[in-house]
Amino acid sequence: MKLAAIDIGSNAARLLITEVTEDENNKATFTKLSLVRVPIRLGFDVFDTGKISDRRINLLLHTMKGFLNLTNAFEVKAMKTCATSAMRDASNSKEIISLVKEKTGIDIEVISGSQEASLVFENHIAENLDKEHSYLYIDVGGGSTELTFFSNNEMIFKDSFNIGTIRLLKNQVTDSLWDDMKLDIKSKTKGFKTVTAIGSGGNINKVFSISKRKEGKPLSMDLIRDYYKELSNVSLQDRIKIYKLKEDRADVIVPALKIYLSAMRWAGASEIYVPKIGLADGLVHHLWEEQKV
Description:
Layout: E1 2-8, E2 13-22, E3 28-38, H1 42-49, H2 54-73, E4 78-83, H3 85-89, H4 93-104, E5 109-110, H5 113-121, E6 134-140, E7 145-151, E8 154-161, H6 165-169, H7 175-189, E9 195-200, H8 202-211, E10 219-220, H9 221-232, H10 236-242, H11 247-250, H12 253-267, E11 271-273, H13 279-292
Helix pairs in contact: 2-4, 5-13, 7-12, 9-12
């Protein structure tokens, strides 16, 4: 069965098309057929003015029409579309959702930070890792960071904070918000087994790619810190040139690493796994569970 998920984030919109097959033991295998990312950057409007501009509404419409054409070409059976932090905060999100529905037939669901954290957790990565550690999922986006903590085969807590890469670029993250996240992580991970981090989001995936680490191997906190210092000390243009980054990645990668490093430090995690999962993958898993019923 072919399923699709659209994640409308604060920095980019992503379409993931996946084929799901089941074996004789009803074990599902998820195979990515296509992943398309379009940097609409809704957060640059919303975190400045509180609403999405006509220009970016137009970009979103073109993107949704393109995504719809692709899902039709792949003969997708079912699709789920969610929007996160920027659409949560935009004063004109209801009008935009109505417009997209009218022009494309696509239903956009604006999900809460808590729902977002749960959907990332749907990928069940921690369940396949050793039981000697606790695991903190850290999903860093343009508008928010979602945290999910997993220990002894169960979810202990999930939280969302309005600390995101675009908000940091716009100087819209207060010291008190950082303090809230610090207290939350420190108090809620205390007393559990040693914490290992699991990172999701385009920025940590890019750093993993630059590091040339083998698939399935974690990155050390020291290495993340080295990349943070290295990337912070060069200009935007040099980041694009030296590290072969797209412009819409080069500006947000430094604030993203700051968030990962902070969360890891407060949780006492010395390593982070980067399994190339995100909200769209979680949406597909969620959609598959719905389709099976």
